[in-house]
Amino acid sequence: MDPATLGRRLATAGIPTLHGRAAALRQLVLQAPPSVIAGMLGYHTVHAEAVAAEAGSTWKKYAPGEHGRRPHQETGDR
How many CB atoms lie within 10 A of CB 7? Predict the structure, then answer.
């Protein structure tokens, strides 16, 4: 179902969507880096980072990249 159609149906049924969406975004940026959440949901990174700052997120110092990989090391086998 198209998001706009779903939004209209929920509004017709008397179910507010704006506050729930904002609350969900705040919760997500507390659990993961705002840049990751923004990319997944189609938000601009600046918006997600602002929401994270308001929510008290600790992801400000997140450094993206592959931290689990070790640099290539030479072995003595030749």
Answer: 15
